[in-house]
TrEMBL record:
Similarity annotation: Belongs to the class-III pyridoxal-phosphate-dependent aminotransferase family.
Protein name: Beta-alanine--pyruvate transaminase
CDD domains for this protein: OAT_like
Needed cofactors: pyridoxal 5'-phosphate
Gene3D superfamilies reported in the protein's UniProt record: Aspartate Aminotransferase, domain 1, Type I PLP-dependent aspartate aminotransferase-like (Major domain)
SUPFAM superfamilies cross-referenced by the UniProt entry: PLP-dependent transferases
Keywords, alphabetical: Aminotransferase, Pyridoxal phosphate, Pyruvate, Transferase
Organism: Camelimonas lactis
GO molecular function, one term: transaminase activity
Pfam families reported in the protein's UniProt record: Aminotran_3
PANTHER family assigned: AMINOTRANSFERASE (PTHR43094), AMINOTRANSFERASE CLASS-III (PTHR43094:SF1)
Family annotation (InterPro entries): Aminotrans_3, Aminotrans_3_PPA_site, PyrdxlP-dep_Trfase, PyrdxlP-dep_Trfase_major, PyrdxlP-dep_Trfase_small
Amino acid sequence: TPHAARTQAASHAASQAPNDLDAFWMPFTANRAFRARPRLIAGAEGMHYVTVDGRRILDGAAGLWCSNAGHGREPIVRAIQAQAAQLDFSPTFQYGHPAAFTLASRLAELAPGDLNHVFFANSGSEAADTALKIAIAYWQARGKATKTRLIGRERGYHGVGFGGISVGGISGNRKSFGTLLAGVDHLPHTYNRAEQAFTHGQPAWGAHLADELERLVALHDASTIAAVIVEPMAGSTGVLPPPQGYLERLRALCDRHDILLIFDEVITGFGRLGAPFAAERFGVTPDMLTFAKGVTSGTVPMGGVIARAGVFEAFMQGPPHMIELFHGYTYSAHPLACAAGLAALDLYRDEDLFARARKMEKAFGDAVQALKGLPGVLDIRNIGLAAGIDLAPAKDDAGKDAPGKRGLAAIESGFHDHDVLLRVGGDTIALSPPLIASEDDIAALVDRVAGVITATA
Ligand code: PMP
């Protein structure tokens, strides 16, 4: 009977709900606040998550910017299962397995220009630290061992390794962790609300901020600088598309001063901006790019670095002691991740999901920008299938701004009251639905976000 089925489903869900909510020390989450009203997810399918109590909630964030093909996709599930049965693990130090080479070739084909050599890691953080280490070692291989300095950018996010937080520019992620890497400097971020508010796509203002690299070169001298790392579109800080002409200028300055340019494409890779990589969308080719997340559509952890031929060749033809890169992870090119990656790339190709995101960009942008005018909306930015919505901060009891409080309220309100999963940084909602989103899904997403904004104002 329906009643028996409901009872059974409820007791199944209850059996899945954990009693102890403190043993798992949660990442970027205050356990104490979470446990007061937990948000527990038990399943996923297509555009939706399913909560432990059986509610379907719309995924407005592609999980964490990663489930680009949507959830529970059969071809990826099957590929992972088959790989686990055939080859569960294989070392890649001094050994190899076919899927690692095949996936690397596929990624090299997908990346623009001569970005042809793939080093595998397991996350975006590892990818960032790998790229920074390769940059420093590259100059050593070329006999320019003084070039070790790394330049990041304010508000940048490159994961949570010591390299990543050192070049990163989100102060909250840095300030509890001591002195960090030496020899790091930062470019200014590119956001200026007075000049850029409510722009679709790339803002017209801000290209000149790339020239700040000249100031850092004057300060430190190019002979000490190894690399500049930026997100082509800053994601975690709240979706900041690059000003028109900015990346081009950064590329030209890096060329002029013999500095490697690294794009962190952990968010922008695999279709988020309607192209395989942001490098292609913006027509600027870095010397290395990092990827993660979407490479397996979020199903199995994987990240990595794609380097231009010249970077790889500097090692192959460098001093004998540098032909081997003394870097790698037990799980570099893990067979399950490679299988998931190959299946995800097939799915992206067969369903033309990157082009689909490009086609959907205008409808998505128009729908999101229509939230302008709701209470406490300070700015909205959109590009590809990504959008940042800045909300005015809540006040504390003394009437002072309490940054982050409204953002957390938006997550709670979304999950419990509006059936939508949101990603929030501070008081900015970042929308990044799976690339399979239909126009109806986008309409539903924006409608639910409107409900959240109103409820938290
Ligand atoms: N770089 C960028 C640009 C990212 O957005 C992220 C994660 N959001 C990372 C690096 C870190 O990736 P991970 O969490 O997989 O280490």
